[in-house]
Amino acid sequence: MYSLHSWLRYAVFAIGLAALGYALWGQLGGRDYRKRMWDLASAFTFSIYFQVIIGFFLIFETTNRFFDKTLGLHMVLSMAAGAIAQLTYSVNRRRPREERRYTVHIWGVGLALALVVAGILAIRSSVFS
């Protein structure tokens, strides 16, 4: 279970970068909002939620349920990233199709991705180690 959680962080990071890159591409190019942005935002939100669920299983799977502050910070930052990703997705979902904007995704996905990186760095020395 730990290996799965550890390796999936790369997928979360890659999907987040893809969503952020696509949002920047759309905004800077003055393009109309496309379904692909919607799909990338959805995949990013789902991947964070999946990571959080696996993380909870890891906590309850261990025999020692006491953990240090860094693991607690990691959990809080991960849950905050999931909440921001969901909020970003929901804000555009409530808008009519013609009023959806890439800017919401730039800020939301960017902030959620920053929280993911901060959460990883709370327990590791590098995102890629």
- Rg, rounded, reads 16 Å
Total separate domains? 1
Globular, elongated, flat, extended or rod-shaped: what is the shape? elongated
Secondary structure tally, helices: 4
Biggest pleated-sheet summary: none
Outline the secondary-structure elements.
Elements: H1 2-28, H2 35-61, H3 69-94, H4 102-123
Helix pairs in contact: 1-2, 1-4, 2-3, 2-4, 3-4
Summarize the structure in words.
This protein is elongated. Helices cover 79% and strands 0% of the residues. The protein is built from four helices and no strands. It is an all-alpha fold. The mean pLDDT is 90. The protein has one domain (2-123). Helix 1 (2-28) runs antiparallel to helix 2 (35-61), helix 1 (2-28) runs antiparallel to helix 4 (102-123) and helix 3 packs antiparallel against helix 4. It has helices at residues 2-28, 35-61, 69-94, 102-123.
Short description:
It contains four helices and no strands. With 129 residues, it is an all-alpha fold.
Structure characteristics:
129 residues; mainly alpha; 4 helices; elongated
